[in-house]
Specification:
The protein is α/β, with parallel strands linked by helices. It contains seven helices and 15 strands. The strands form three sheets. Strands 3, 4, 5, 6, 7, 14 and 15 form a seven-stranded mixed sheet that branches. The chain has a six-stranded parallel sheet with strand order 10-9-8-11-12-13, with helices on both faces. The structure holds NADP nicotinamide-adenine-dinucleotide phosphate. NADP nicotinamide-adenine-dinucleotide phosphate (NAP) is lined by residues 41, 43, 128-129, 132, 153, 155-159, 177-178, 196, 213-214, 218, 235-236, 252-253, 294, 296. Its EC number is 1.-.-.-.
């Protein structure tokens, strides 16, 4: 089968290439999915799981991409809950070959049914950013209606979904980003926007939750804005900034079928809009992941036309 492979960590996204790889075999509780569309987070190439298996053994050439939408073509021994021919979407194991390929082996529990009226490209854009936003707001941030949330990087993949979910939930959303992102931030549901390059973050005042996707100095300054009892939630590694009278939580997104169902239902009924900036083919994927101009939103690879 055709797949994108990564062999050289130092080369980053520019070092990925299109290659011929063996089709995956289903392990116990797996399904094989014919991938119709795949998402990719460029920082995957800095994660140890892209380069080694759980025992620490090198596993290159590895196939990146860990979110997908496609059709089940085979079931492994003991697999229940999904059928051959079923449309599915979801998040695959970080330590196994991923979704920038014509086929992928994935545990059935990591997938949810993809309704027939949701396009594969939209389905593939939702698992990582949608589940990260959901888990960050509701599980780790324990968001309550009426609270205020500072969503960093609100024009990006995670931030745009977090802003929409928080607004729907009855929160007041302050989005941040670059100056060019103001209109997009408001379009995705932010009540107000802070241009991190030109505005003063501290003018925001107190917030109940910070949803951080940036880290560093922005995260440390944001920690000082968290009200007593509030939470700084970050997805970019262990928190460096800590609220004086609140929690700091970092987490890695996990697959969750019920949450995937909630997310896709919102897309179907118009409460949630995907944030896709570019759709490319597998042949164009490496170039698409090395854009020459700035893009906000997801690049989705349409593997089967
Ligand atoms: N822990 C987890 O489970 C998890 C899950 C998903 C994502 N992540 C991580 O979360 C981060 C965001 O992911 P994403 O998919 O949402 O990325 P994304 O689509 O690139 O969004 C990030 C947004 O933040 C903006 N931004 C970054 N630094 C900024 C700064 N200093 N000032 C103003 N704006 C800034 C970016 O603008 P520019 O493009 O111009 O920089 C972009 O619009 C990544 O590091 C990713 O690895 C972690």
């Amino acid at each position: 089968m055709k797949a994108i492979v990564a062999t050289d960590q130092a080369a980053g996204t520019a070092g990925m290439s299109l290659a011929e790889r063996p089709e995956p075999q289903p392990a116990i509780n797996d399904v094989i999915v014919e991938v119709h569309a795949s998402g990719f987070v460029p920082t995957e190439l800095t994660w140890p799981s892209t380069w080694t298996d759980r025992a620490g053994r090198e596993r290159t050439p590895s196939i990146p991409g860990h979110e997908l939408a496609g059709v089940v073509t085979a079931l492994g021994y003991g697999t229940t809950g999904l059928s051959v021919g079923q449309r599915v979407f979801g998040l695959t194991d970080w330590y196994r070959d991923g979704t920038l390929a014509q086929y992928v082996a994935v545990e059935a529990r990591n997938l949810a049914p993809l309704p027939g009226d949701v396009d594969f490209t939209v389905g593939a854009s939702l698992p990582i950013s949608g589940l990260t936003a959901w888990q960050g707001l509701f599980q780790h941030g324990r968001l309550q209606a009426g609270q205020s949330v500072l969503v960093h990087g609100v024009a990006g993949a995670v931030g745009s979904i977090a802003a929409q979910l928080a607004r729907e939930f009855g929160a007041y959303v302050i989005g941040t980003g670059r100056s060019a992102d103001r209109q997009k931030a408001l379009d995705f549901g932010a009540n107000e926007f802070v241009d991190l390059g030109n505005d003063t973050l501290e003018d925001v005042g107190g917030v109940d939750i910070v949803f951080d996707v940036i880290g560093g100095d922005v995260q440390k300054r944001s920690a000082t804005l968290v009200r007593p009892g509030g939470t700084l939630v970050t997805v970019v590694g262990p928190a460096e900034g800590r609220p004086t009278d609140g929690l700091a939580v970092d987490f890695v997104v996990e697959s969750d079928r019920a949450q995937l169902n909630e997310i896709v239902q919102r897309v179907r009924d118009g409460r949630l809009r995907a944030n896709i900036s570019n759709i490319a083919t597998l042949d164009e994927a490496v170039a698409a992941f090395n854009p020459i101009e700035r893009r906000t939103g997801k690049t989705i690879i349409r593997i089967r036309q």
